[in-house]
């Protein structure tokens, strides 16, 4: 898997939060759902388990954020920021680190969106909510299910529709044909 090897190269085979060299797994940073180099971080079992089960958090483990919060990788910054935010409710040191942390506006928006647990809205590649009537640009060539055709990168889909039951897809017409497209492969115009 090309994505995973690119991630392993970036993290130098160390957990991107605590530097552990135990087996690593890619972790997709919400609200994104696809493992890509930009939207995933490589984590050890300990970090991953504690992020997924906040009630099992050992605050002392997260002292590692003291170093990893300075990562140059936005996805790592987002995970570090969210962990510090959770911990800052009970840990003064986490609160202090959070105060010192600096995020670019775009990264901050990403970090905050994921904290909402608001997973029932379709979000584009930048985490911007997509609404009925929006125009979007397709960001990569997408094969059309059940045919040999592709939707070309750069295709504009106008006046999309969204469904409350399906936050992963938007609906729209491409070349006059109605179809579903994964929201994360769109960019709002
Ligand atoms: Zn770790």
UniProtKB/TrEMBL annotation:
Q: Which residues form a coiled coil?
A: none
Name all PhnA protein N-terminal proteobacterial domain ranges.
Answer: 6-52
> SUPFAM superfamilies in the record, alphabetically?
Prokaryotic SH3-related domain (SSF82057)
Transmembrane intervals: none
PANTHER family per the record? Answer: PROTEIN YJDM, PROTEIN YJDM-RELATED
Provide the protein name: PhnA domain-containing protein
Organism, by scientific name, is Vibrio mangrovi
